[in-house]
Each structure stands twice: as C-alpha cells, then as structure tokens.
Design a protein that fits this description.
With about 150 residues, the chain is α+β, with helices and mostly antiparallel strands. It has a domain of about 80 residues: Rubrerythrin, domain 2, CATH 2.20.28.10. It is built from three helices and four strands. Strands 2-1-3-4 form a four-stranded antiparallel sheet, with no helix packed on it. The protein starts with a helix and ends with a helix. It comes from Diacronema lutheri (Unicellular marine alga). Keywords: Membrane, Transmembrane, Transmembrane helix.
Length: about 150
C-alpha cells in the first residue's frame, strides 16, 4: 500500500508541475526557432577559390575543344532536322563519336537526321538519295504491273 501511495505522490507532483513544463517547452521552442532563422550563415569560401575553380573549368572546356579540333570534328553545333534540338560542342561526347543507335533526346529522331549548324545557317539535309530511290522503286513497280497485265 505504501508503494502505491508513493507513486500517487509522484504522479501528483508531475501533474501539478505539468503546465509549467509545457510553458517552458513552448517558450524554448519559440526562442530556438527565432534564433534559428535570424540570419543565414554565409559561405566560408574565399572569392579567389571560386575564381580559380571557374578558370579551371574554362581551361578544361578549352582542352576538350582543342582535342575535338585535333581529331577533325565539327566545332559548331548539330541540329536535329525534325525538332530543332541543338547538340552543342559543350556536350560530354562529341557528336561524331555517338554510336549508330543514337537518337535525338527530344523527338527520338535517328542520328542521320542531324545536320551541322554554321552560324545562323543550318546545313541542308540531303534527301536526294531517298527521292531517287523512291522514284526508281515506283518505276519498277509500274513496269512489273504493265508487263503483268499484258
């Protein structure tokens, strides 16, 4: 019986102290929140290191362009003739090194639909082989039809 009485006294102390504890927790949370958003910490990076990093990135890009120039790759942009997507010289892999299964990331057009862009002028896509092949095929079908009917 005495053990139960002691636990009752402890419980009574907690309940009588409860509102004070709740108020203390709320006030400390509000103070902590106010000080947490008082000011954003500034980065501790020196400006010279940022400039050095930019210069290093620029030099790496220049090296990449020099390598492309040595290999005889096109220095300009490649444009998808179907949708106008531009594959620029800043891409990781030069366009000439793309595999045969490469497709336009925007319209899924095949690699052969890309043309070189020189300044503001886009090179023309030569479809003359396709047109000539179609005409020869139509002539062959027409000839077979003529000989088959006679």
């Amino acid at each position: 019986f005495r053990d139960r009485l002691l636990t009752f006294e402890k419980a009574e102390r907690v309940f009588t102290m409860g509102p004070r504890v709740v108020i203390l927790v709320i006030v400390s949370a509000l103070v902590g929140q106010a000080s947490a958003f008082a000011g954003a910490p500034r980065p501790m990076i020196a400006r010279s290191s940022v400039a050095a990093a930019r210069a290093q990135l620029h030099m790496m890009a220049k090296k990449k362009l020099d390598v492309r120039e040595e290999k005889g790759y096109w220095q300009g942009e490649w444009v998808c003739a179907d949708c106008g997507f531009i594959y620029g010289p800043t891409e990781r892999v030069p366009f000439e090194e793309q595999p045969k299964g490469f497709v336009c990331p925007q319209c899924a057009g095949p690699r052969r639909r890309f043309v070189k862009k020189a300044g503001d002028v886009v090179g023309s896509l030569d479809d003359s082989g396709l047109i000539i092949g179609t005409l020869v095929g139509l002539a062959a079908v027409g000839g077979l039809l003529y000989f088959g009917m006679s």
